[in-house]
Amino acid sequence: MKRIVYLLFLLPTIVFGQNQKQVSGQVVDMDFKEPVIGASVYITMDAVGSERSVVGAIADLDGNFTFRAPADANTLVVSFTGYESQTVDIAGMNSTGLLIEMKVSVEMLDEIVMTGYQETTMRKTTSSMAKVEAVEIKQAGVANIDQMLVGQLAGVYVQPTNGAPGSPAKINIRGTSTLNGSSDPLWVLDGIPLEGDDIPSDFTDKDNIDLLKSYPISGINPDDIESITVLKDASATSIYGARAANGVIVIKTKNGQKGKTRVNITANTFVTQKPDFSKLNLMNSSEKVDFELYMASRSDLRYQQGQGEVARILNESGEYNNFTNNGFSSLDPSVQAAINGLKDTDTNWGDEIYQAAINQQYGLSMSGGNDRNDYYFSAGYFDEKGATIGAEQKRFNLTLKNNYDLTDNFTVGVALFGSQNRTSSYLTGIDAYTNPAYYARTANPYLGLKDANGDYIYDPDLIERSDINLDYNLLEERANTSNELIANSMKSIFSIDYTSEIGIKITSQLGLQLDNDAAEQFSDQESYYTRKYEQKSQYLGDNSEDLYYMPEGGIIQNTNANAFQYNWKTMINYGQVFYNKHEVDVLVGTEFREDNNTMVRSRGFGYNPNTLTTVPITNERAATGSDFNVYKKSYSSNAYASFFGTLSYTYDGKYSLFSSLRYDGSNLFGVNPKYRYLPIWSVAGSWDLAKENFLYSSRLDMLKLRASYGIQGNVDKTTSPYVVGTYGTESVLPGISEEIIRASGAPNGDLRWEKTTSSNIGFDLGIWDGRLFISNDYYYRKSTDLIGLQSVPLESGYNTISTNWATVTNKGFELSITTVNIDHTDFRWSTSFNISANRNNVDRVEIQEESFKPSLQGYSVNAIFAIKTDGLDSNGIPLFVKDGETMSAVDFYNLLEGTDGSQLTREEHRDLYTYVGDATPKFSGGINNTFRYKQFDLQIAANFNIKQTVKRNAPYHMTTVNPGNNYSTEVLSAGTGDLPGLIGFNSAGINTDLVYSWFNSGDGGNTYNDLDVWVEEISYLRINSIRLGYSLSPAAASKLRVSTVRFYLEGRNLLVFGSDYTNYFDPETYGSAYAQPLPKLVSAGLNLSF
Amino acid sequence: MKRIAQIILIFSVMLSACENYLDIEPIGQVIPKSVDEFRSFLTAAYDTEIQHKVVTTYRTDELLLESNRERFDFYKDIYVWNDVNPGLDTRVFPYATFYTIIFYTNHVIGSADDITGDSEEIDQLVGEAHALRALQYFDLVNLYAKPYDAATAASDEGVPVTTEYDAKRDYPRAPVSEVYKLIISDIEQAEGLLNVEQQPEGYNYRFSVLAIKSLKARVYLYQKEWQKAVDAAQEAMAIKSDLMDLNQAQTVMASEYNSVESILALNTVTSFDMIEYASVSPELIAQYDQTTDLRYANYFTLNSDNKYKSNKTSADNFKCTLRTSDLYLIIAEASAHLGGASLTQSREALYALTQNRYTPDGWEDYKLRVGSLDQMGLTDEILSERQREFALEGQRWNDLRRTTQQRIDKTLDGETYVLEQNDERYVIPFPQDAIINNPDLQSN
To answer: Which residue ranges does the record assign to the TonB-dependent receptor plug domain (chain A) (predicted)?
Structure first.
């Protein structure tokens, strides 16, 4: 494609021979019969038969073209981005007044791929990259583009973290090449790398689920996106420098199309269904009451035995022991009635925390232009109430893009992307109990929420200590607390291009990114959150009475984060074709980047929501802890300077070589200056066999072999060979505040940079005019000298230091197949399928002496280790397996009389574990089918994960089942099958006391949670989206004076096939008790353009 | 071609500008160079709190712990000297924090020649670093090794010694004698460098000439170098010898940082838990003559539940590492051991202190009683006087260790626990995390 662009520059210089004929006509879209503005129409070279001589023209605003060509020209080639190129025979015909209908391209060979620095085509590229058009993956009711990538691209593993509106998807390109750093890819918007927070790695963790955070791509309206290209191998990513070690996702947004103004309106309503709470299999009131009675009947189970309504009734009537000894029938009838009465209330906690919600999404865009100017404008509104009550996201978008040709040589482009994203959620404190998803799992089904007078019923079983109940009620908490994040984001890009006649192109691009995140967490005086917070201010008065220094009233916490970055990139590009065979492309450039981050966090106590005022804390005790700091500011700033260049050469369209080199410099305070500039380089080559005579066939579009190799580096900026300190203020003795400098990290002059070498080989095969396209890649990535924390003797003054301690390899394959199965005028069916596998191996890692878990050496980064069991003994205690032998817990843990088992050395402890599987799926991928029948279209998108090992949290603990909490019905089967039985310190049976004290207190490494009974291997196929659309025929549409009308109906996440994920909502969040379920939604929408 | 030359020129200008572009000094971060920066650096070390004096107090006979009080699990096993498999909640004896402070002092000492600024200030700072390091090793070796015994110190295992940062080397235990050698050498170097005679109130957590001489006296006392201890204490008293007279109404207590007695107010000696959830042992209360010893009312309050509570609270002003009373008692104790003519000196030092502690009548009785004691009786009396004077100030454990290593009996929930005379448990085992990170540390 690019070559054509270059060639067209040469047009004015062409001198014609004497035999010429006039060629003219119009190019139109086959479906819409609209002019294809900008399509190139030219006579192929062999037809002309001379060097450097292409003859042709570009279609004007009405799609018309006209030029003069040699009289013996036989064929006319017509091409345009996004359309299939076609050849028109003009030999011996009248070549004027041609009507050329172009068909939207389904093959990707000639599509322009934007790598951010350069444009290339799939046909020319030597690198491993994958591209997807936004229109193919767009889903209604999805706020962000990351979620839409699930299962779309080979080697790009996308896992939704959680079902809350606005929560990010975790994206992993070609495995994990780090042990503790970020594995997130770099997002690039129209050439500007976006700056922002990494996605937390552990999304089973409650704090990460409850935290509202904004991510760099969450401000981008998917409607504005034209295509997404994922750069995977080193030759594609190395131009992006050190940050691209985890791959790059390049977003190209829509530009205005020259021609008359087009207005496009989309409206969409989607219904988020209420999650099926019964999937969690929790006990209902009747089961729970019976279970509490069972607990009370076992005199050995004393953990929290006073908790739960049954125990309270028994204790109040003084009949607890009577019940334990003589059973239910011995109880006073009134007590019996009271206990049975509990079964009458059956609160469905699912109804209390989940809802069905009706949501909306609207979009408007306008685009158009003339031959010197094009523009694109869009506005978007997205409003999603989550399935969890209180979780909500609202987004407003405005986008404006404008390109001007100032002169024939100069082009100026301006783009503005503005958005406001308001996310709100419930407020939870530091502990787990009040996360609604978790609370709904543990709250008793017989507990009501409001009494007959409408007053809140506080949960008597949610207690801090035996003597403190801070009164939690879900409804009160929801009414009196709030948690909101308002993220304002502005991204703007200004670019100027200069193109000279001799093929030199100079581009300078300045990108600004401004993000302002304002978070507010409010809890009124009457809330559990406030009461809990107040506890932190407890102190004893003179008469040993409890006093609190936190002022009465609410708590308001504001966090204001400002991030700013600019990125200024200048490039000089020279591309030329010499003697019709040698294509050379050289690019050199510089990139300067600076970012500033400021965060101010303030807290106010005694907040009155009516007067909006707070009360100062006067008690000097408040100064001792950080909980009552009212103001905190942090600031950081970074600068980067990079120099880069690429060189590519293609011979005769068959052989291509590509190489790139980049030096990344950054501010490295106190870092060894020899690491100031990191060299990053790559080389790649390809060979298109289809162009060779011996394989030439008109059915073979392309058979290209590709290979690449490259090196990337990264340096740990937090480690210095010097003693670096951080300023602070402390008071050693009362009344005097002094500046201090605290050493930040251990000095380490020996640290080397982390290095990743990547090799990639692959082939692309296209046959039958785009009916079948196969792309296949193998890669091998080796990361050496990975930096990690290593424990050191405490005598050094530190407990850990950063060292180069690990080597990780990733290898894998990716296969994607795109087929057009049926292609008739009325019926078209195409399929795209991709599958990929990644094998990750930690080749070398230093053993952490203090670690309870085995070293990952020889296993995947995401390896799961478990304690092997083999059923239960007669007391319900698991039997364990070591070296193929089944043994009791006493032998397995080497429990000795008089000890609690903690005499196990860490090494012995590590040896207890067995490798059971990898949390990375063996295979993952997706299948998309698109059908079009006359005016109807149907798209079915599915993604799958095959053989993924997951470990869930133990649903209950053998020694600490609390009768005051609800559990999944699994606990009813405790002691049968594989499920460990419930034991107390004096349960009957041999050695129970040893085993009890081990599991209850000695098990410092918490092996109970690692029993293999909690480990599952899951495989699933999720039907992501089913969408049925109907477009009015052009004739019908024109009657309505619009150009297109489309209605559609879409269902998202409706079906999952695969292994059992009982007790959880989704296979994706299997094992996390805190995650919000992935939304199931049905949407209906309308798309109108005129 | 000309254009390309221009471009190359622009690029090379950009490159040279780059070095400045990348030189961002992050706000809040610094590589200490000047004496002011190193002062702030050392202040961070001073500010690193170690509660070893609090935890060891639970091992002494000064406290009464009851199972129905809060946080009982934190201290129970310490209280009954159960070092093998203590409960999970048991407070851990500090270890790493000592070495954190040592890291800071090592860095200051090692950078001495490179610090920029006023040379007097630099000397004072480096002197303080030596002194602070000496104090850390002194506290470490008295926690985790046998008390100093000149006869066996060369073979008794002490604690690992490091005078410069190195995370890669091994850290075997150095003999007790080596540790003391470093302590004395640090003290002597500090003496040569320190030039502030006395630190002003509020800054008296820092070492001064007075503080280093007082520390030296204490170290020699622990080494049983009696004459040297006396000499050092006298040198210190030449600078400051004020005592707080309890016969006068007082607004502060002697162990507060702002008392007239304060020499070095660095260590925290009591904790919230100790004051609120434990009580003063009846054995300690019995040491006081409740009518004549003014410290009884000054130090303790009888609660409604008939338990005694210490008036030395956990508030920030109760910080005490060394105070002038120490000097008097060091002279008294060391002189008593010297015997002969020095016994008079011993008694005089004792009288000088106790005049400020007893009622005038009580003091006369005291003098009568002490005047009749022989050398052995006198040393015993001095130990008792130390117990009374420094009640709950974190000195008792070391005083027991280095002197009689007497038997202690405790009863808890009806069960009796005994720390035998010369029990091995007078040495505290290294904490688990220290052993895990340093396999060379064999447990005591």
So the answer is: 122-248
Report CB contact under 8 Å: B22, A740. Answer: no
Q: Does B360 touch chain A (CB under 8 A)?
A: no
- Please choose, from the candidates A946, A931, A971, A960, the residue with its C-alpha nearest in 3D space to the C-alpha of residue A1058: A946
Query: What H or E segment, with its residue span, contains residue A866?
Result: strand A863-866
User: A604, A599, A600: which is closest to A522 by C-alpha?
Assistant: A604
Q: Tell me how close the Cα of A531 comes to any Cα of chain B, in angstroms.
A: 21
Considering only CB atoms, B437 lies closest to which of A738, A748, A792, namely: A792
For residue A197, the model assigns a pLDDT of 66
Compute CA A141 distance to the chain's CA centroid, rounded to the nearest angstrom.
Answer: 17
Query: A848 or A854: which carries more pLDDT confidence?
Result: A854
Chain A residues 227-246 within an 8 A CB cutoff of chain B: none
Q: Kindly calculate the radius of gyration of chain A based on its CA atoms and give it in whole angstroms.
A: 33
Closest CA to B408 of B64, B13, B34: B64
Question: Which candidate from B18, B104, B170 shows the least CB-CB separation from A641?
Answer: B18
Q: Across all residues in chain B, what is the average pLDDT?
A: 89
The H or E element containing residue B371 is helix B360-371
- Rounded Cα–Cα distance for residues A980 and A973 (Å): 9
| CA-derived radius of gyration, chain B | 25
Q: Are B186 and B131 spatial neighbours (Cβ–Cβ below 8 Å)? A: yes
A659, A903, B246, B259 from B252: Cα distances, Å = 78, 48, 10, 6
All structural domains of chain A, each given as residue ranges with its CATH number in brackets, are 2-102 (2.60.40.1120), 112-269 (2.170.130.10), 285-345 (no CATH), 868-912+955-1010 (no CATH)
Residue A675 binned pLDDT confidence (cut-offs 50, 70, 90): low
Assess whether pLDDT exceeds 80 at residue B406: yes
* Per-residue pLDDT, B6: 64
Please give the pLDDT value at position B24.
Answer: 66
Q: Which two tokens stand for residue B58?
A: 């639970």
Give how far Cα B285 sits from Cα of A596, B289, B383, B418, Å: 62, 9, 15, 20
Mean pLDDT is highest, among A274-283, A416-425, A736-745, for: A416-425
The encoded tokens of residue A1031 equal 């477009």
Nearest CB among B15, B25, B202 relative to A736 is that of: B202
Q: Which of B165, B166, B112, B108 is nearest to B132 (CA)?
A: B108
Residues with Cβ within 8 Å of A645's Cβ and at least 6 positions away in sequence, in order, are A586, A587, A588, A589, A660, A661, A662
Number of inter-chain CB pairs under 8 A, A vs B: 174
DSSP state of A430: S
Residues in B touching A502 (Cβ below 8 Å): none
* Cα–Cα distance for residue pair A572/A69, rounded to 1 Å: 34
**Residue ranges with strand state E in B146-282:** 262-264, 279-280
Taking the Cβ of residue A1038 and every Cβ of chain B, the question of whether any pair is shorter than 8 Å is answered with no
Enumerate the β-bridge partners of residue A1044. A1089
Please tell me the distance from the alpha carbon of residue B418 to that of residue B398, in angstroms, as a whole number.
18
Residue B162, chain A, CB below 8 Å: the answer is: yes
CB contacts, 8 Å: A728 with chain B: 44
Q: How many CB atoms lie within 10 A of CB B219?
A: 23
Give Cβ neighbours of residue A60 (< 8 Å, ≥ 6 apart).
A37, A371
- Chain B CB contacts of A735 under 8 Å are 202
Domains of chain B: 225-420 (1.25.40.390)
H or E element, residue A711: strand A700-714
Query: Please, which residues 745-764 of chain A have a Cβ atom closer than 8 Å to chain B?
Result: 746-748
Residues in chain B within 8 Å Cβ distance of A1001 = 87-88
Q: Residue B363: CB partners within 8 Å, gap ≥ 6?
A: B292, B351, B354, B355, B357
Predicted-complex ipTM score = 0.89
B307 contact A CB<8A = no
